[in-house]
Amino acid sequence: MSALITRRAFLRSVVAAAVAGHPVLAADRHPRRLNFVLINCDDLGYGDLSCYGSPTIHTPNVDSLAAKGVRFTDFDTCAPVCTPSRAGLLTGRYAIRSGLTRILGPVNTTGIPESEQTIGEALKSLGYATALIGKWHLGHLPQFLPTRHGFDYYYGIPYSNNMGDRVDGRPNCPLMRGEQIIEQPAIQETLTERYTAETIGFIKQNKDKPFFVYLAHNMPHNPVSASERFRGRSKGGLYGDAVECIDWGVGQIVNTLRELGLERNTLIMFTSDNGPNLGSAGILRGKKGQVFEGGVRVPFVAYCPGLIPAGIVCHQPATNLDIFPTLIRLAGGKLPSDRPIDGRDITKLLTVPGASLPSKPFFYFVTNALQAVRVGKWKLHLGREDRLLPKPELYNLQLDIRESVDRSDEYPHIVTELKQIAQRFVSDLPGGAHIGGSDAPF
Ligand code: MG
To answer: How far apart are CA 321 and CA 89, in angstroms?
Structure first.
């Protein structure tokens, strides 16, 4: 037997073993499909969890998911503010494609176009029960609500928790169930606990069919609050209390899945929509609203004992645009072929220790302005024509995660190459996209 045949036989046996242990690919033996719980926090920074080095905020439940699952160290959001980040997450496409490039509020009359397909819609068409618990932020008028865009059930605030005039000292934002306002202004102290309870209720109600819960906490976005039993608990002040309450909720959800016998068959993901406003980006430069790493690199942890081996730390670049294609594939569906999908399936990174994917350009927008481009270790800030960044700056993220030493003079050919990649990408996009500039995100 030649070495080649031996190798082929070996590979066949490895693939067969992987398929047999895979709850989706071995669907005939395991009739249940994977459930998904996607937990997205609002403005939680890269340095705000203990498993990402926070010295003051204690998050044992998320840490446990990371220890028994996979933790990404180089996970980016496609925009450093709420609306475009969420548009990208839910469609797998840069927000410029759906037009949702600015932060929406109660005065806006626009929202997610009918033509977009959300993860909710894609999974619903595959027989999933779908819920959005928490913040939507893709339009609050009836035709834009989650109930019209793929979610069977909705409970939450349709935009940020600081929006609306103040009433009795509170922002006058509505809490909705389905398409009805059930509380206004929303009482925010107990919001995280109520979102957790709603998530658990939905899981229990739908335990006999595949489900997708998108739990989008409004915390720890300003104004931060926590209920009395969580106040004063954290060394990180009220902000830390709010994050620790979210972490408590993660533990409650995991316990529920365990009790229902669904733990091995449910993929739980935990992330944030953008970098911190009030919290910490750890050692990274910048914050929310900026395309420096502090604004765009966010925690991402995934846990599913039936799918993900324990203790993977993934240093490969991945992004929140990848969640759409990954979940659709894991659910056994097909990606839409009538539109560009910017994300890609990262199942391999989730499930195989040490795996990598070919490098792929990633583009950082603020509104319609493409402000940076990254390929592999190189990230080029394209310049904003203002005092903050008057000329392009090049960083080697492998050696310089803090983006502190501009290498553009040393590597002019890399600058040229990345600029060309940026120009080609922008020229293929819908009108309005441009390179550089510093538009306000509202
Ligand atoms: Mg946010």
So the answer is: 5
Same domain? 212 vs 300 = yes
The encoded tokens of residue 338 equal 């009538």
Report if residue 87 sits inside a domain.
yes
Ligand 1 centroid vs 437 CA: distance in angstroms?
22
Helix (H), strand (E) at residue 416: helix 412-427
Largest interatomic CA distance in the chain: 81
Contact 359, 376 (CB under 8 A): yes
337 touches 311 (CB < 8 A): no
CATH code at 373? Answer: 3.30.1120.10
Distance (angstroms) between ligand 1 centre and the Cα of 270 equals: 14
Residue 155 lies in a domain: yes
Active-site residue among 137, 140, 217, 381?
A: 137
Count of residues in the chain: 442
**pLDDT tens-digit profile of 269-318?**
999 999 999 999 999 999 999 999 999 999 999 999 999 999 999 999 99
Structure tokens, 316: 């490969």
- Which range of residues forms the domain containing residue 82? 2-351
pTM, two decimals, is: 0.92
Alpha helices in 229-379 (DSSP H): 237-259, 293-296, 323-330, 347-351
**Do the domain assignments include residue 357?**
no
Both tokens of 229, joined, read 């039993």
Contact indicator for 292, 57 with CB cutoff of 8 Å: no
Residue 20's Cβ-count burial label (10 Å; 0-12, 13-18, 19+) is exposed
